[in-house]
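Changelog excerpt

This revision adds worked examples to the README so contributors can see how folded entries look when concatenated. The first example is reproduced verbatim below.
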Amino acid sequence: MDEFLINVRKHLHQNPEIGFNTYNTAKYIYNILKNLDYDVNYALDGKAVIASLSLGKSKTIGLRSDMDALNIKEQTGVDFASCNDYMHACGHDAHMTILLYAAKLFKENINKLKYNLVLFFQPAEEGPLPGGAYYLKNDALLKNIDAFFAYHVSPSLYVGQIGIKLNEACAAPDLWELELTGVGCHASTPERGKNPILAGSEIVMELEKLYQELKKNDLIVVSSTYFNSGVSMNIIRDKAYLKGTARSFKEETRHLLHKKMDDIINRVCQKYGITYKFDFHYAYPPVFNEPKLANMMFKAAGKVLTEDNVIELKEPSLLGEDFAYYKEIAPTCLTWIGARNIGATYYDLHNAHFIVPFETINYGSKILLELVINENVL
């Protein structure tokens, strides 16, 4: 395997940065692309990188990688594990290396390229909201792109497989927060207070009922992920805090979920005589794959992988991706690339044990090369 690929991936994995604090990662990427003789620019005040390869072609393809890691302490045990308390547990180190190794391959095959290329590296895909793409999409260097492509690694697929969903690809990952205010009291005399835990517990169960009902007719999820009302065993606190996510694919469904959740919370709080503050945070839009672009990826992947390993996915993912914002400029295509060796233990994305095999990166870069050396109608 190419030493360039190995060294770049190890460095990026060992030195993760989170959110918009991606200055060192951007500097590292900038220098690599500069050495490969790309026209390179920083964006978002040094947090992002945009590299161009203008060849006088009629169409321009944009290839995107996210850059940010997660606030997770790594437990993979690999010899190139993170050097700090963050971790690339979502595989963004692999995404960056795929695109950087592809940049090297593009230069080595420059006479075969059929498109102008813009390679860009974006922070804060994992948040904070509204995400890095929300801001980077306004950069003038992205305005003349005709089609956007991106990868996301997937442990649900094996190394040597890719999966693409036509049309709906990823959900809108909306978030919610709830603050309940009751009356605190001693735990021995609950009748003298108004326990927000009781209301919160009923709200969690009612939201689960809502999810079970709505999912019969629509692809959604409503999850409660956080519940906190203190740590003492002899105190009923006056406050309780809940958080979660509500995910869907249609704008009308997003608003319907917001309203129904608010109705449930209002009804339960009235029952227990407590007040509340409910915030529904509209996050990234859903990702939609343009079928024409998906077919381009199918064709390119089929030349690198065997055809039975190029899979049309039947269901979209309920994960969120701020890659969705680039559809405001041009059509998009997000491709899932296999990141688990056959026989290996399954570790999900955002798990402290998750690690992307080097072979995944090698396949991903070579597929991108096939994508841009084949003439397709954009």
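The second example, added in the same revision:
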Amino acid sequence: MSYPHEPEMIAPINRLMISLDCEPISRYIRLMTYNWQLPDWPEFRYELDGLAESLLAFAEHAGRVEGLLEGLPDDLGTEAVLELMIAEAVRSSAIEGESLDRDAVISSIRNRLGLNAAPQPVDSRMADGAGELMVAVRNGFRSPLSEETLFAWHRMLLGGSTSLRVGGWRAGGDPMQVVSGRIDRPTVHFEAPPSGRVPVEMARFIAWFNDTVPGGPKAIPQPPVRSALAHLYFESIHPFEDGNGRIGRALSEKALSQGLGRPVVLSLSRSIDVARNDYYEALKTAQRSNHVTPWIQWFVGVVLQAQCDAGDQIRFVLRKSRFFQRFDRGLNERQLKVLRRMFESGPEGFTGGMNARKYVALTGVSKATATRDLLQLARSGALTPLAGGRSTRYELDLA
């Protein structure tokens, strides 16, 4: 069997090296660059000896997060899950350099979860599609993966595009490359299989995904490991003209949910976005070989961080509820608007704190009024002043 860019004399040597459980010689020959060009594709090899502690921690944190949710009143539990879904939609698009209107995403998700008494209009097609995808992945996590499912997800994300092939595999003779840098001197990080191979590759990927589900004939029992492999496998095929990263992360979430037997409660994209450069570097390295232990180690670490962040988010929602129970009365609409905006930043806090200049921008009042409102919030205990700088900055007091 021959492979693209593989000289005839190299193929038998590669097969011999792999039979001896050695790295294929083509790994050291630049003529064969990417994982899908190697003769062992897509037989990923990895060791989990150093991951036992992290995998156990994931299971413990997942149970703890579920317990935290169950301990909240229904409305607060729903708010916590909603905040994580919003973060996932917004951050997954941010990784691809696209900015979503957060309020539009909120409306889209709430509409589809039936949380609005009457459906709210969503002005942004992109935000509406991202919200629709989040709900579809969450509600359909038990369903087997299919070509139709992936096409439907793609239409949700990019259905408004008139320049892309939407709801179908990419086609054409041009190579699908992941590049950066100048247009005239681009750096090619990865080149995916030719378009003609995509239908066969994706049929094999879909079969693999369904076979490795818990209880499947090739079950992978560790949810984060299967999630890591699914993401790498899908991204290496890169089957769509656009939207591959967002759909790849949705597949990782589906794999985690199937492994837990319930919708996973976390925002994987938020944790990846924080380490975006490391993400691209880890993925680039993993796409050079089918020995993928380092990739799995990195990805499991990100999943574990996302699970810890989810716990912080749930506790933050509880503190937010108690905060407004304490301060809701006696505050004017300007103050409430600013406080709600500060809470939107989540447990990590409002970037740079709140000051009079930002207050003016958010409310449209004069600087004198902004300063007076902020001082009142500080005296009441809602905000804490921060030292330093030319103007006083404030942060939420959640003690």
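Reviewer comment on example two: The CA atoms of residues 141 and 254 lie 5 Å apart. The two ends are 66 Å apart (CA to CA).
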